[in-house]
Amino acid sequence: MTTRLFGEPVQRREDPRLITGRGRYLDDLGAGALAAAFVRSPHAHARILDVDVSAALDVDGLVAIYIWEDLPGALAEPLPLLIPHPALTHGRTAYPLAREIVRHVGEPVVMVVARDRYLAEDACALIRVDYEVLKPVVGLEEAAGGAHLVHDDVPGNIGAHLVQEVPGPGGETARQAVDAAPHRLEFRLDVERSACTPLEGKGVYARWDADDASLRVYSSTQTSTSVRMAIAAKLGLPLPKVEVVAPDVGGGFGVKIVHPWPEEILVPWAARLLNREVKWTEDRREHFVSSSHERGQVQHVRVGFDDDGRLLGLEVEILHDHGAYTPYGIIVPIITSTQLLGPYKVGAYRVEFSSVYTNTVQVTPYRGAGRPQGVFCMERTMDKIAAYLGRDRTEVRAANFVQPDEFPYDQGLTFQDGRPLIYDSGDYPEALRMLKELIGWDSFPEEKARAAAEGRRIGIGVGCYVEGTGVGPYEGGHVQITSDGRVHVSTGLTSQGQGHETVFAQIAATELGVPIERVSVVTGDTRRFGYAVGTFASRAAVMSGNAIALACRKVREKALRIAAEALEADPRDLEITDGMVHVAGAPSASIPLATVAVLSNPLRYAFDEEAKRATQFAGPASDDRPPVAEGEEPGLEGRDYYSPVRSTFAAGMHAAIVETDPDTAEIRILRYAVVHDCGRLINPMIVEGQIHGGVAQGVGGALYEKMVYDEHGQLLNASFMDFLMPYATEIPRIETAHLETPSPLNPLGIKGAGEAGVIPVSAVLAAAIEDAEGIPIDRMPISPSDLHTLRLTR
Ligand code: MCN
């Protein structure tokens, strides 16, 4: 039996439970709890004149109705602005229940609690809210025009404005570099709004324990520790009196990092007030209109380059729509503007963005978080340069790559936290070589000619990206070996389907030398681990993975110290194999880890058989022997934290071949290839799964998904009947190859992988469609009818 499982394609241990209906999702909990439902604004922008609840009071089973005026203390204040930034001069967040003004359709106005959800919805339907309808601001250009305001005190609707300028080698500005370049291009690129749309929406279920004056809250969240802190602060409870558990979570993709959602504090508050269990489960329409969206961005590019396509100067101006509120600050346009350069070196760079308010759902990070827009911008730029110069598109890219001997590479930019953006390692030329081979780039022109001879239109596209992953500030791990030889691992961040139960067990099994079957993993439960940041930004593997490895190393050292005493050996001569500590090269001189666990705890229970055996093994403790050796703590357990100096940069390159129908303009993906580098792989099968899921989501963003608002701020496609997502049938087989350039920044040498798949897909498919059709594709998503219209205007 091998316990060296790091790097092995171990099957996901959580899957049998999750795919046979044994997962415990939020709505599986709390049968019999009271149900909450919300009256939400039907208007994009309106003043609340009156709320009349009288008719609802007759509903049998009604328990309570709350409006903003009922909320006490900190609960009545606006929700927190989670990531402030000096450039966000006018950050605004919503109240948990609307106060005077509603700023998007779906904003919660009244909370109803009743015996069950049907009755709560009945009561909602009987509540009359009188509104004075105000002029809504919809669309980026209208918002930037500033004729009407989303927030009265935000002039021009501009919440934030930021410029970053990296001068060229001779100190020239980007403007000077572009103007002086032998060749120049200027164009506009648009990406439309989409959303995370996890299959399980948000949800929260709270139990108040009046005897203990404490709250237990279950939330479908990506950040249980932060939700806990928010609840404690908003409800005025000491932190130890609040516990938050993320049960199985049916996808998050970013939307469940916003915390607290209004419901996440209102439901626990009502549970305490009523001294009853209360639960709220979001329905699909609520999710569309009252959670968050992303992507929507307009980008103007000016680029100057030489005869080889080398970038001498690049100016990018971004107009970002952050919807009605900014709970997550301006993290999305900051990521776009700082990671847009991808694997390339640029002479001089200037990026400027304005972030504007509109009367639409707020914008917060969605898998990829601003990078898909940035990569669309950069990769379309590369393709336009290649087309202009008549060069191969991969040649132009290669001419601009950061080279393997140039790491660490400083792009000269500053990230959200004020730290410099430095790439730690990578090999972009090798990744491109692998990708070209995988997709058959060099032989494609013949394939295209053959297809053309048959009357078929096919095209190929390529896209490259880097992704800052594993951001800090920290994550921790706790590891305990119990007297039955089992290993219990816990970490505070949560899981939404990424396979953490498997990979963290692989790390523990490898570090401790125990069979993986003996390792159990708990995530997202503040009762087990209270200090954590959360799962987002492809950080779990880097952050918790390293923290768990460090905690295991502590425990291993302690186990060896105790075993050495029992075996009368030097700890340096010991190793652990298959759960047994033994003298290297002499397996007969051994002691089970289970026994070591017993020896670590002087309280030897009479009813514990393992303890009895261990006591005999070690001989009776003499009276003058201290019960716990000096400097030791009882128990075979340890905790450690990992806190990186900066992010580690994963990278990748995708290529696709598409076919467009000459008559119907239908777009079909024939092949999709990925070369990905996330440093050392913990589990290649899980990474491939993550990439497949990401590509599928990217295909949705490139070809199908967009939020359609009318001029009144009504979301016209707020259901899965109308919001088009790809089925499995639209997703091609994804061919994947891995490149491993270990990160020098962390002990395990890993980089993140969870968002990579989604990042370049729009850029790659736009390039492939453009190649097939010979029409510039500057806006995503693109549907068959969009393509048809483009053909007509050719
Ligand atoms: N992994 C690995 N080797 C590496 C890097 C990662 O084996 N070198 C594994 C990890 O151990 C983990 C998975 O790949 O099991 C993803 O790791 P990581 O990149 O650390 O990403 P996180 O675990 O932090 O997950 C967050 C990431 C993000 S930001 C979004 S959004 C997203 C995603 O994961 N949301 C998801 N993947 C998702 N997958 C599912 N099923 N559901 C979501 O909501």
The share of residues in helices is 25-40%
Question: Spatial order of the strands in the main sheet?
Answer: 3-5-1-12-9-10-11
Task: Give the helix/strand class.
Answer: alpha+beta
DSSP E strands, number:
29
Cα end-to-end separation = 64 Å
Mean pLDDT: 94
Radius of gyration: 28 Å
CATH-level-2 architecture of the largest domain: 2-Layer Sandwich
Summarize the biggest pleated sheet: 7 strands, mixed
Domain module tally? 3
Low-confidence stretches: none
Bound molecules: pterin cytosine dinucleotide
**What's the CATH C level of the largest domain?**
Alpha Beta
What CATH calls the topology of the largest domain is Aldehyde Oxidoreductase, domain 4
Proportion of beta-strand residues: 15-25%
State the CATH superfamily name of the largest domain: Aldehyde oxidase/xanthine dehydrogenase, molybdopterin binding domain
Number of helices: 19
Shape: globular
Protein model, in words:
By secondary structure, the protein is of the alpha+beta class. Helix 13 links the parallel strand 20 and strand 21. It has three domains: 183 residues, Aldehyde oxidase/xanthine dehydrogenase, a/b hammerhead (Aldehyde Oxidoreductase, domain 3), CATH 3.90.1170; 323 residues, Aldehyde oxidase/xanthine dehydrogenase, molybdopterin binding domain (Aldehyde Oxidoreductase, domain 4, 2-Layer Sandwich); 171 residues, Aldehyde oxidase/xanthine dehydrogenase, molybdopterin binding domain (Aldehyde Oxidoreductase, domain 4, 2-Layer Sandwich). It contains 19 helices and 29 strands. The termini are far apart. The strands form seven sheets. Strands 3-5-1-12-9-10-11 form a seven-stranded mixed beta sheet, sandwiched between helices. Strands 7-15-14-13-8-29 form a six-stranded mixed beta sheet, sandwiched between helices. The radius of gyration is 28 Å and the shape is globular. The mean pLDDT is 94. Pterin cytosine dinucleotide binds next to helix 13, helix 14 and helix 17. The site of pterin cytosine dinucleotide has 36 residues, from helix 13, helix 14 and helix 17.
